[in-house]
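Tokens for chain A. Residues wanted.
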């Protein structure tokens, strides 16, 4: 094992460990009017607090974004492709959109950054949601066709591929909780059907990715939590773990990695989540401050799947950037313990490169390592950005003395 401590408290990561920052098309591009989220944001009943609008205008400023990643010293940029731009109408593919994403991948390579490409990050084209979205019987095939067409165009430039981002969140928030489109509540049967459809879509997409040009690791990225049984909550906890996580982990056999995305721990009682007690340190999202979730979920994902793990998202919603460094430091200490114990962890991506559109919560929560001016779109790297770049360049973390 190539990890270890170089000086008393410096934690060295394995050679080739990937350090990166992540974004998603709808949260940063702006003007994504042709998908279900745009519709949802503009539905007064949805509870969304803002339109994604121009977001961070990354559709035009993507080159600046790639440059920031590179200048910071991070080795990878995880971004997503907007399906509704690539396939604006069923079966109609936009070469201009494909060329756009090809330029992004090429720019990453020119600057020594590996492009980590996600094919679905929450948004679905309206032509598909108009006929049922993930409930449409052919949705997995339609997704695989888009992936196949896209990889034919950009596959030679892909560094890593993520098929679907947090399908578990799409399904639970869309069909049981009602916060995400299509805004259904307690539609458990439909929720489970969408789980199954997304697992099938993932498997078809893996095949499509492997049949195209290029040679790159392929996986899915999953939202994982530390789910804890409170008083009498064992059954609820086990059920939640099964429905939210294991269903998808079971669908990863044969993949090259599992992407773990983790932010929180949740205590479950007999009927569902239990609010953290008063006085608990909370993040801007209302989650308990719990950086230990990285170690917990990485260990679990690895033990369950046997696959190499990439932390494809982790971070903190806070206005206090010092707190972000503190959070990521604790998270990385836990990750390093995993690696020291022999767990195959390949990388860590902070969410997010930019303060951006946090779905139904709008632009309130600040998860970025760079601030973005809402009027000029100027990007301003925060101290945490430079700090993470230093960690990446050293491939080592020196935590402050306790
Ligand atoms: C996971 C999602 O993939 C991302 O879109 C979101 O912004 C972060 N979690 C933070 O909530």
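Reply:
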């Amino acid at each position: 094992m190539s990890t270890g401590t170089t000086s008393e408290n410096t934690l060295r990561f394995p050679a080739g460990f990937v350090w990166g920052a992540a974004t998603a098309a709808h949260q940063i591009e702006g003007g994504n009017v042709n998908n279900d989220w745009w519709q949802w944001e503009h539905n007064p009943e949805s509870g969304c607090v803002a339109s994604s609008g121009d977001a961070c205008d990354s559709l035009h400023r993507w080159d600046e974004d790639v440059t920031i990643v590179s200048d910071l010293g991070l080795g990878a940029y995880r971004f997503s492709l907007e399906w509704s731009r690539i396939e604006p109408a069923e079966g109609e593919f936009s070469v201009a959109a494909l060329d756009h994403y090809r330029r992004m991948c090429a720019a990453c390579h020119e600057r020594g950054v590996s492009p980590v490409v996600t094919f679905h990050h929450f948004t679905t084209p309206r032509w598909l949601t108009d006929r049922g979205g993930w409930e449409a019987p052919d949705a997995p095939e339609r997704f695989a066709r888009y992936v196949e067409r896209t990889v034919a165009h950009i596959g030679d430039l892909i560094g890593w591929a993520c098929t679907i981002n947090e399908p578990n969140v799409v399904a639970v928030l869309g069909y049981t909780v009602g916060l995400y489109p299509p805004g259904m509540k307690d539609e458990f049967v439909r929720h489970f059907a969408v789980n199954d459809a997304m697992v099938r879509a993932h498997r078809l997409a893996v095949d499509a990715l492997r049949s195209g040009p290029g040679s790159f690791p392929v996986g899915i990225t999953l939202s994982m939590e530390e789910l804890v049984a409170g008083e009498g909550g064992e059954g609820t906890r086990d059920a939640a773990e099964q429905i939210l996580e294991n269903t998808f982990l079971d669908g990863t056999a044969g993949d090259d990695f599992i992407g773990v995305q983790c932010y929180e721990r949740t205590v479950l009682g007999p009927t569902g989540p239990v609010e953290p007690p008063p006085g608990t340190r909370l993040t801007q999202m209302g989650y308990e401050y719990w950086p230990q979730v990285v170690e917990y979920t990485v260990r679990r994902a690895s033990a369950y799947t046997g696959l190499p793990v990439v932390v494809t998202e982790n971070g903190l919603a806070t206005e206090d950037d010092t707190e972000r460094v503190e959070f990521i430091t604790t998270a990385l200490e836990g990750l390093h313990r995993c690696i020291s114990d022999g767990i195959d962890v390949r990388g860590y991506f902070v969410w997010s490169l930019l303060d951006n559109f946090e779905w139904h919560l709008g632009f309130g929560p600040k998860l970025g390592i760079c601030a973005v001016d809402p009027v000029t779109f100027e990007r301003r790297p925060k101290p945490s950005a430079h700090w993470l770049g230093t960690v990446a360049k050293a491939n080592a973390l020196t935590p402050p003395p306790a």
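The chain has a mean pLDDT of 97. The first strand starts at residue 4 and ends at 5.
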